[in-house]
## 1
Amino acid sequence: VQLVESGGGLVQPGGSLRLSCAAAGLGSDDYAIAWFRQAPGKEREGVSCIGSTDDRTYYADSVNGRFTISSDSAKNTVYLHMNSLKPADTAVYYCASFPNRGRLALILHCPASLVGSWGQGTQVTVSS
């Protein structure tokens, strides 16, 4: 599985960004795609996740109500729409896949221990 993220950048507090994750080689109808992030000196954190079978979603408490995850199955792309961004959202954002276990991953809120493949990451910086 190959995952390619794009859309990161510098944005002012209160601003918005949209991240994209283009996936190739999933080879399964039951998968999930998640976004994680890692800030300097902190552990990697799960942000959001979406399943392929019923578009079930999960959001971390820290982003619930501000971020929205969506997918375009025709393009094999998952998006993370980030609104009302805060300096605390500054991090490298990674896309991750859960091939052949999407339903299970969503039940468990897409833990890093079940990730099959990682993208290379894209930097998001929220600063004035």
## 2
Amino acid sequence: QVQLVESGGGLVEAGGSLRLACAASGFTSRTYVMGWFRQAPGKEREFVAGINWSGAYTYYADSVKGRFTISRDNAKNTVYLQMNSLKPEDTAVYYCAAMFRSDCSGYGCYATPNRYNSWGQGTQVTVSS
């Protein structure tokens, strides 16, 4: 049974940093795409960042480019989202997701929520002004 568990959320002042982690278990293959999405109250879930299985390819939403960094440690089955220079508009519930397909390439594929097969329960990030 595939399970994704996020951690690392919390309350931080604007300009601060947080690092989210997503621990994965129950996977039978290591060739999976991982993504981070977020959803603010009253808004649709939006793509934040994605990474391929080797870590060679990463994609970011324009709103976080240059501030957030996605990485993965396959030995630990964990994906990270380092968030720097946080802004109040980054406040949302952050979800990690896994995609079990090898033909996904390009921003359009990584950024589409319904291409992902498994989701975590989410972790709250609140940035105060």
